[in-house]
Amino acid sequence: MNKANRMIVAVLTGLYLIGVSAAIAKEAEVGSKAPFFFIGTYNAELSGIKRVFLDRLVGEKLKEPKKLLLLSFFNIDCKPCKKELPFLQKLYERYKDKGLGIVVVNCDYRKEKVAEVIKYINDSKFTFPVLKDRFQALQRRYGVESFPTMFILDPRGTIKDIRVGYNEEKMPFPLADVQKRLGVKVEPIESK
User: Fold this and answer.
1) What is 3-182's CATH superfamily?
2) Which site among 14, 98, 125, 165 is 20 to 30 Å from 21 CA-CA?
């Protein structure tokens, strides 16, 4: 193959990969069904769950789906994530029996980072499932490009909102909306 043909193939391959990436990212948009997954957890002992199946938490086939599912992606070096995760634990402890589901996805892949993740999870005693996305398959499927990124899913598994970042001053967590969807009293919860 001559140089000109190799360049054409390279350009077409690049355009194809860009199109595939765009198609994957569009798979997880507000108003669409959340892409299905099943994946193992880092904290099976604390959460009581070895593997999370999305269709066992939300979806039209369930008799009693979660009223609301928060699906948040993080990595261990993300400072805003380390502020969001303890707040999510408080929410989970308070509302898990009221229909709130929380699942967080760790996207670290390097061995030394995974060891940090495991230590952090154990030290923090998170009781919601923390998923192992060491190959970033779920991260790519949901089109996550920065951390934290949270998807808010309704009982049918439809993405109702996507929140990127965690900064209580600039973009407060939609606590009142979460409480209304759960049918509980709207009240503040300390985030610290």
Assistant:
1) Glutaredoxin (3.40.30.10)
2) 165
